[in-house]
């Protein structure tokens, strides 16, 4: 049935190194779970340069790419798959704007960050990105049905 398919929407989410280092993992997971999204996969890992370059491939030509890869590989991150109705755009709303100075209070970036390069959390920005990123970090058997 169509409703079932929509409820099973999945996205990829990452708590970036500064979020882990600052002890915000519990707070962020709480917000995600209280909203009603289901965590269906979760791991802590440190990205290799190769993984980081794949993850942010869309930004390869940007002036900040080098800095971005340095940053995301600088410490352990939490990678997750989240599930729920409208979770791709819903997670982006919980995160707030890319520049935390423009992110609304009540959002994760709005409440806990001040710099674009230290904006704590990543979320896939489309269905295609979500599928690509989930496959980059997780094998099918690591995702709970
Ligand atoms: P993300 O991919 O990390 O979830 O962030 P986003 O969609 O909100 O923003 P995006 O445009 O995809 O940028 C990816 C990350 O690159 C860093 N950034 N730096 N210096 C700059 O102008 C600049 N612009 C973006 C940020 O850390 C951003 O999250
Ligand atoms: Mg992005």
TrEMBL record:
Nucleoside diphosphate kinase-like domain boundaries: 8-145
UniProt xrefs under Gene3D superfamilies: Nucleoside diphosphate kinase-like domain
GO biological process: CTP biosynthetic process; GTP biosynthetic process; UTP biosynthetic process
Catalytic activity annotation: a ribonucleoside 5'-diphosphate + ATP = a ribonucleoside 5'-triphosphate + ADP; a 2'-deoxyribonucleoside 5'-diphosphate + ATP = a 2'-deoxyribonucleoside 5'-triphosphate + ADP
GO cellular component entries: cytoplasm
The keyword Nucleotide-binding belongs to this UniProt entry's keyword annotation: yes
Region forming the signal peptide: none
Record family assignment: Belongs to the NDK family.
Role noted for this protein: Major role in the synthesis of nucleoside triphosphates other than ATP. The ATP gamma phosphate is transferred to the NDP beta phosphate via a ping-pong mechanism, using a phosphorylated active-site intermediate.
Protein name: Nucleoside diphosphate kinase
Organism (species): Thermanaeromonas toyohensis ToBE
Phylogenetic classification of the source organism: Bacteria, Bacillati, Bacillota, Clostridia, Neomoorellales
